[in-house]
Amino acid sequence: MKKLLLIPLLMVTFFCFAQDAKEIIGKPVKIGKLLIAQYDIAYLNWADAKKACASLGAGWRLPTKNELNTMYMNKDLIGGFSYIGYGTGFCYWSSTLSGPKNVWIQDFANGRQVDFDEYWSSNKVVKWYGRAVKSF
User: Fold this and answer.
1) Where do the structural domains in the chain lie, given as residue ranges?
2) Residue 13: which pLDDT band, with cuts at 50, 70 and 90?
3) DSSP state string for 2-23
4) What are the DSSP E strand ranges found in the chain?
5) Residues 69, 72, 77, 81: is their CA dihedral positive or negative?
6) pLDDT per residue as tens digits for the range 64-99
7) How far apart are CA 103 and CA 80, in angstroms?
8) Which of 35, 82, 83, 115 is least crowded, fewest Cβ atoms below 10 Å from its Cβ?
9) CATH architecture for segment(s) 22-135
């Protein structure tokens, strides 16, 4: 009997916490030739953030370092960025690698872009948010 109750409970849990592509993309903001999803993807490590963006549909991905900076410069227009609470700011993943284990991130509190390995060598384990983009 307990096993029979576990299956529906697991299904409800999965559906309650899964992020739907339409919920994330929402009404995308257009800046130049870039569509920016209305909402953040879940709080994930770098590899999972890349997968989550790609799972939104054809062409959706993490932004490059330069696209992420454009997003920072237009953060008030775009809106909805999450506060994570590390240190003085909150960072977002880019898709741009700066070395075999390094990823560029951007602090949306002060605009600083950081080669993530400056702080932690296991940069793909730490979790931050991402915002999906799509070129058109």
Assistant:
1) 22-135
2) very low
3) HHHHHHHHHHHHHHHHPPPHHH
4) 29-31, 34-36, 41-44, 91-99, 102-107, 113-115, 128-130, 133-135
5) positive
6) 999 999 999 999 999 988 765 555 458 899 999 987
7) 23
8) 83
9) Roll (3.10)
| Nearest-angstrom CA–CA distance, 41 and 56 | 10
pLDDT tens figures, 110-122 = 899 988 775 554 5
Provide the pLDDT confidence category of residue 32 given band limits of 50, 70 and 90. Answer: very high
Q: Which two tokens stand for residue 25?
A: 């993309």
- Residue corresponding to tokens 């994570």: 84
Q: Token pair 């307990």 is at which residue?
A: 2
Cβ–Cβ under 8 Å, residues 56 and 24:
yes
**Is the alpha carbon torsion for 86, 89, 95, 96 positive or negative?**
negative
- The pairs formed by 109-113 with CB atoms below 8 angstroms and a separation of 24 or more are 111/69, 111/72, 111/73, 113/65, 113/68, 113/69
Predicted confidence band of residue 42 (pLDDT cuts 50, 70, 90): confident
**Structure pTM?**
0.78
